[in-house]
Amino acid sequence: MPEDSESAPAAPELPGVDWAAPPAEMVRNAHVAQVMWGAAVLDNLLVTLLTHSLPNLSRRLRERLFEGYGPLGNFAPRLDMAFAMGIIGEKLREDMVHIKDLRNVMAHSPSRADLNDPAVRSILSRLRGYTPEKDPLRFFFDRVQDCLRGLWELIDKLANEKGIKIEPPAWPPGR
Questions:
Q1: CATH code at 30-162
Q2: CA distance 103 to 35
Q3: What distance in Å separates the CA atoms of residue 36 and residue 39, rounded to the nearest whole number?
Q4: pLDDT band at 23 (very low <50, low <70, confident <90, very high)
Q5: Segments making up each domain of the chain, as ranges
Q6: What is the pTM of this model?
Q7: Is residue 104's pLDDT more than 60?
């Protein structure tokens, strides 16, 4: 069957669906996905840092603390614990708290907020180095990458002190 525009199936006719208008929605969805992904990568590295910092952490205790409804079962208490233990510094913690807040606002926004939304920009502006003229997605990625570098440096230092090997993350690019 030839693959030309005349033989291609037409988009389904659904009431209330405007197939010609998805670009704005795609941008919003892309921003949400990127923020969710960036926060998840940071959260995973934070778990790596915390778990390697706890000397008596068995597999069972790790599950009890870090999974489900455990006391370290999500990003916020992990950040608090890492800071309280002196594992991460104040600047890294502040940026990661704001990234966590961005993730929460965007994940729970009924209007599917993007990085240009005023409520989101308000949180974005709390990140170090923010200026309104910067592209919000590029700025977000730069902040995430700086946080990832900071966490990885701490993980690498910890691994060297303990004489162990911890695999580097797949991101940031160029590692």
A1: 1.20.120
A2: 6
A3: 5
A4: low
A5: 30-162
A6: 0.81
A7: yes
